[in-house]
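Why should sequence recovery work at all? Because a backbone constrains its sequence more than one might expect. Tight turns favour small or flexible residues, buried strands favour hydrophobic ones, and helices have their own preferences. The token representation captures these environments compactly. In the example below, the structure is given first.
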């Protein structure tokens, strides 16, 4: 059990049978009435974000999340097959479970699987990945007054805004948290 007074960003907790990670929290001490903690929590099972208020000093369950290295093998319809790097066991996750992650996932890529008491909740990508540009328009000289950008489609199908000097075939470093261009690799 953990007190809501000890909330930290990234902490995983169990509330009413669901597993949440703390995205944001704020301790509030109003002039009249009891203190409370206002928090923003992300449900790790379905990805929904909820705002929840707890009384100061209230205790809730702490969820111990396990991270293991796995390798992404291939897609089979709407199922995506992964292999545990230690036991070589294979398992599948649905496209719905990997909605955002599929924008950055390449075959043979190593990622971390997130699980709670044997239940697979999803995967954690590295903060940045290298992806190849498959489609982009050529840059036009003369319209570069204020850092002009253009759209580029990556090998995974994800589209990012890039500077005009990026060409097809270039390998880019892309931030997986926001889906934005960082630099050329």
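From this structural description, the recovered sequence reads:
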């Amino acid at each position: 059990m953990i007190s809501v007074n000890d909330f930290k960003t990234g902490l995983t907790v169990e509330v009413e049978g669901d597993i949440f990670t703390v995205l944001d929290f704020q301790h509030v001490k109003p002039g009249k009435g009891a203190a409370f903690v206002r928090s923003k929590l992300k449900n790790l099972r379905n990805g929904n974000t909820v705002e929840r208020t707890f009384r100061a000093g209230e205790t809730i369950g702490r969820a111990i999340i396990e991270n293991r290295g796995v390798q992404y093998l291939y897609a089979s319809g709407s199922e995506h097959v992964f292999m545990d790097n230690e036991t070589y066991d294979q398992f599948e996750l649905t496209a719905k479970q990997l909605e955002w992650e599929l924008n950055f996932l390449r075959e043979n890529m190593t990622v971390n699987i997130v699980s709670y008491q044997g239940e697979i909740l999803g995967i954690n990508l590295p903060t940045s990945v290298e992806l190849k540009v498959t489609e982009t328009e050529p840059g036009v000289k003369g319209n570069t007054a204020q850092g002009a950008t253009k759209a580029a489609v990556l090998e995974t199908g994800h589209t990012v805004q890039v500077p005009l000097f990026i060409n097809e075939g270039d390998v880019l470093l892309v931030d997986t948290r926001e889906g934005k261009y960082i630099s050329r690799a």
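A few observations help interpret the result. DSSP finds no helices and 16 strands in the chain.
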